[in-house]
Amino acid sequence: MPYIEHMTYELPELPFGKQDLEPHISAETLDYHHGKHHAAYVANLNKLTDGDSSKSLEALIAESSGGLFNNAAQVWNHTFYWSCMKPGGGGAPEGDLAARIDADFGSFAEFITAFKAAAMGQFGSGWAWLVEKDSKLSIVATGNAGNPMTDGYKPLLTVDVWEHAYYVDFRNARPGYLNTFFESLVNWAFVSQNLG
Ligand code: MN
């Protein structure tokens, strides 16, 4: 036993039950996506940091590269993504968030069109994001483990567009996954909380 027990990075619990997003996202997807993929990023991060979790994920994302960046960012990105969904989610945002989307994208419909285009345009694995910088909302896509915080953006919403996020439920149909995300899953209350 070491004298000092370092705290390790931990896999956060899902903010909903494994079956709660069905029929849109299956328990099987969450078993793998949370229980295998997200868990593996946490295990890799603990290996790479030798079990010392004294640095925040945000600090690691800001200052690291290579495998350390990839695993820290993937832990952060997935934790954030889970909170972007809820059982019975979907529909349109309200209040300040709705007004900010109208102001910066023209309308909610134009925002959705632009977000889906960014998510579809991300070739291969990555993420699509609604972000804020200098009080302005915009949409960015990042490849692999990329996180827009490294470019000074504050993430408000993300959708995981790695195939492991949708292959079991939608096979290769990323558009169907994106439609379902916005129609039935997106948690606008969480997105509103992230607004500066
Ligand atoms: Mn993923």
Q: How would you portray this structure in words?
A:
The chain has helices spanning 27-48, 57-63, 66-83, 95-105, 108-121, 167-170, 174-185, 188-194; strands at residues 126-133, 136-143, 154-160. The chain is mainly alpha-helical. It folds into 2 domains: 27-83, Helix Hairpins (Orthogonal Bundle); 95-194, Iron/manganese superoxide dismutase, C-terminal domain (minor pseudopilin epsh fold, 3-Layer(bab) Sandwich). Strand 1 and strand 2 form a beta hairpin. The site of manganese (II) ion (MN) has 7 residues, from helix 1.
The CATH topology of the largest domain, please? minor pseudopilin epsh fold
Described by its quaternary structure, the protein is single chain
What's the Cα radius of gyration? 17 Å
Shape: globular
Helix content: 40-55%
Query: Superfamily at the CATH H level of the largest domain?
Result: Iron/manganese superoxide dismutase, C-terminal domain
Hetero groups? manganese (II) ion
- Could you tell me the mean pLDDT? 96
| Spatial strand order of the main sheet | 2-1-3
The ordered string of helix (H) and strand (E) elements is HHHHHEEEHHH
In whole angstroms, the N-to-C terminal distance is: 45 Å
- What can be said about the biggest beta sheet? 3 strands, antiparallel
The helix count comes to 8
Q: Which structural class is indicated by helix and strand composition?
A: mainly alpha
Strand content: 5-15%
Low-confidence stretches: none
Key descriptive features of the protein:
binds manganese (II) ion; single chain; 48% helix; minor pseudopilin epsh fold; 2 domains; mainly alpha; Helix Hairpins; 3-stranded antiparallel β-sheet; globular
